[in-house]
UniProtKB/TrEMBL annotation:
Residues 237-274, 377-409 are annotated as: Disordered. It comes from Streptomyces dioscori. This is Prenyltransferase alpha-alpha toroid domain-containing protein. The chain crosses the membrane at residues 414-432. It comes from the Bacteria. Residues 59-169 form the Prenyltransferase alpha-alpha toroid domain. Keywords: Membrane, Repeat, Signal, Transmembrane, Transmembrane helix. It holds the Pfam family Prenyltrans. Residues 385-401 have a biased composition (Basic and acidic residues). Residues 1-26 form the signal peptide.
Length: 442
């Protein structure tokens, strides 16, 4: 999914005070590819574009997608991600030299940490690694119960949902995770859901959607990207949603007409998280009803499809028990997403794999394309299948022990190689290979 870093990232740039290139240009700009004189990328990293602003994110999605389809990621790819963690447990978007300790200038963020935690938990990483990430995420929870992109930033739907999914994956009870003001993450999400049954025709049609954040006047504006994230967050789901075995569940539907009557949503003005998720899903169904895809919300990109958030919408609809409604945007992606994924890189392939998996679609035959093979081609070769019931962690431990023995005999450790390979990294543009990151803040 993912979900989650479009509007959140725009907010973060304001906090950091750095002028990043627009995300809309990043996917298509020639500058997204390293120049002949640019430092070589780490051999364990997925993707060929500059990782400065999305290295951990795209790596996490790539590893999680491979795990989801039964592929064992390369050990050095997992080690690279683990090596990005700071001593406090958080992850920054990318650290060129992981041998250098994180300091106050290191911008650890909730999205990178949440994505890494989901991937490393699935891959049976050491408890010390995942436990530290959980502790850090808990420590930066806002008083309203949610999370912003950066610690201390205002809570937003996307970041809050990423963290919920990560903590749930790590067996943390998010329903009982309370802030100093005794607020839960779900309280924060409900506060960002547009109320139903009020307003004129236009505002009523957006009822049930999620906003990214309130505007300066405290008003909420519907945001499709945030809504896909909010649906998953409200359901306690992460980036990966397993397909339903028994078909769609009973999901409350919105009512209303084109005559100006406002939409009516489940739960009225005080929905439960599950009802808010159902309402958000209904909004998404309407958003893709005409064309099968979401439209980019970035200024200057009107009437352009938003591939990444359409994939997130498929996952959200499947999670909300509406796989039949996910069929139309899924079919559109199967037909139209090939060029986008090839240009965008590993995280895009991962998003499509998550969409296929959530709907029970074969990702190795996605509109005739083998997404698993295409994702694998963007990074180091996968490991052979596990033997003798060993987990990924067991095999990595055995391999590292063997490499340690070789180092005693004059060999070179994999950590030394990773440390040297990570030096450098020049950033142009933002999130060069992941989801379309094209939503604007309300």
């Amino acid at each position: 999914m993912f979900v989650r870093r479009s509007a959140a990232v725009l907010a973060a740039t304001a906090v950091i005070g750095t002028a990043f290139a627009p995300a809309a240009l990043a996917d298509e700009s020639p500058s997204a590819s390293p120049s002949p004189s640019a430092p070589a990328l780490p051999s364990g990293l997925y993707g060929s574009t500059d990782p400065t602003y999305d290295g951990v994110w795209r790596q996490s999605l790539a590893l999680l997608a491979q795990h989801t389809v039964g592929v064992r990621p390369a050990a050095k790819a997992v080690d690279w991600l683990t090596g990005q963690q700071c001593a406090n447990g958080g992850f920054a978007a990318y650290r060129a030299d992981p041998a250098t300790k994180c300091d106050t200038k290191t911008q650890t963020d909730t999205n990178s940490t949440g994505a890494a935690l989901q991937a490393l938990t699935a891959l049976d990483a050491d408890d010390a690694v995942t436990g530290a990430a959980v502790k850090w995420l808990k420590s930066v929870q806002n008083e309203d119960g949610g999370w912003g992109y950066l610690p201390g930033g205002a809570s937003d739907t996307n970041s809050t949902s990423v963290v919920i999914g990560a903590l749930e994956a790590a067996d943390t009870d998010t329903e009982d995770l309370r802030s100093k003001d005794d607020r839960t993450p779900y309280d924060a999400l409900l506060g960002l859901a547009l109320p139903c049954g009020k307003g004129d025709k236009d505002s009523g049609s957006d009822g049930g959607a999620f906003a990214f954040q309130p505007d300066k006047k405290g008003k909420l504006a519907a945001n499709a990207d945030a809504t896909a994230a909010g649906v998953l967050g409200a359901l306690g789901e992460g980036l990966v949603t397993d397909p339903e075995d028994d078909g769609p569940s009973a999901t409350p539907s919105r009512t209303g007409t084109d005559t100006g009557k406002a939409a009516e949503c489940a739960g009225g003005d005080s929905p439960t998280p599950e009802q808010a998720a159902a309402n958000g899903a209904a909004y998404l169904v309407g958003a893709v009803a005409k064309t099968g895809h979401l439209e980019s919300a970035l200024a200057g990109a009107e009437d352009q499809p938003d591939y990444g958030n359409t994939a997130d919408t498929v996952v959200a609809l499947a999670a909300a028990g509406r796989p039949a409604d996910a069929g139309k945007p899924l079919a559109w992606l199967e037909k139209n997403s090939g060029s986008w994924a090839a240009e965008s890189g590993p995280a895009a392939y991962a998003q499509l794999i998550f969409a296929a998996h959530a709907t029970g679609t074969d990702p190795r035959d996605f509109g005739g394309a083998d997404l698993v093979k295409q994702l694998g081609a963007t990074g180091p070769a996968a490991e052979p299948a596990a033997k003798d019931g060993k987990s990924d962690k067991d095999d990595r431990d055995d391999k590292q022990a063997s490499e340690g023995a070789n180092e005693d005999d004059g060999g070179v450790s994999v950590w030394w190689i990773v440390g040297v390979g990570l030096v450098g990294g020049i950033g142009v543009g933002f999130l060069l290979s992941t989801r379309t990151r094209k939503q604007q803040q309300p």
